[in-house]
Amino acid sequence: MKNKLGPSLEALRQLNNVSIHQLITGIMSSSTYYRFTHDGTDISAVKFIQLLDRLDSSLTDFINLHSPEDITNQQFFTTYLHSVSTGKINERSLQTLLLLLQKVNNDRPTPRYLHYIWLTQSCLDHARKQPYHFQQDLNRYFTSITTWTSSSLIMLGLSAPFIPFLSLSSMFSTVCEAFDAHLDRFDVQKAYSYFLVNFALLTILNQSQFAFIRVSKLFLKHKFLDSTLTMSVYVRLINLLNVWLNHPETFSASQLRPLANVLRDFNEPVYADQLNEFSQLFEHNFLTDHPSVLRHPLYQVF
């Protein structure tokens, strides 16, 4: 089946009276754009989000133009990431996506739509500081998988913050082997980054030294994990904490403090604030004689 995203994006471009040259410069070639909009060729979620941003269009605008007869994996992952990029969750866009998913699932119930609903609602719950309605459903789904596909791995990468830490720990080795077998796809590489960074942060928050050592070794193995600014800062954080764990005599809390400023300088205020809060809590909890409770400021990284 041909990809239907391209024609809808082209309609949105014409609606916004933006030239093709203005839209694609620095993102893709004109031939790639033509194949995407006319021949049904896929492009990466990152490039699609860049095109949407350049059109200054909301998720609602795109959904209104795109036929809701079916929602493909690429459509869901692209629109979901567009709603949670840079750490600032767009509740309105997520709510629109959730309503669309519920409508499509009511018309043609499938497990895939249910999984999308569980993830989208979990992210909304997180933004609203509410209990996760579908945490156990997500947990049962992922722990029951025997054959991992690219789509299920991407889904796991996005769902990692909403799955109980013990479950993630128990499936960690199996999942990493599955990711390694699918790394020829860029979107799987990105999902692997989400999974490993969030899992590493959860090991810190759950004070699991064994699990942290396991995941930190993979950051040395895979160089693609720091492919974005945000990821590179968090990889730096994890590497510094690895130094603290293995060579505490060479570690200083002052090494953590500049990381938040790096994110702030590159217009990532949400991540900067949570990283600054984490650094303060970590220093007070582990590096002083009067520890406090380490809460969950680092819970979701995209």
Automatic annotation (TrEMBL):
<keyword id="KW-0812">Transmembrane</keyword>
<feature type="transmembrane region" description="Helical">
    <location>
        <begin position="153"/>
        <end position="172"/>
    </location>
</feature>
<dbReference type="InterPro" id="IPR010982">
    <property type="entry name" value="Lambda_DNA-bd_dom_sf"/>
</dbReference>
<keyword id="KW-1133">Transmembrane helix</keyword>
<dbReference type="InterPro" id="IPR011990">
    <property type="entry name" value="TPR-like_helical_dom_sf"/>
</dbReference>
<dbReference type="GO" id="GO:0003677">
    <property type="term" value="F:DNA binding"/>
</dbReference>
<feature type="transmembrane region" description="Helical">
    <location>
        <begin position="192"/>
        <end position="213"/>
    </location>
</feature>
<protein>
    <recommendedName>
        <fullName>HTH cro/C1-type domain-containing protein</fullName>
    </recommendedName>
</protein>
<keyword id="KW-0472">Membrane</keyword>
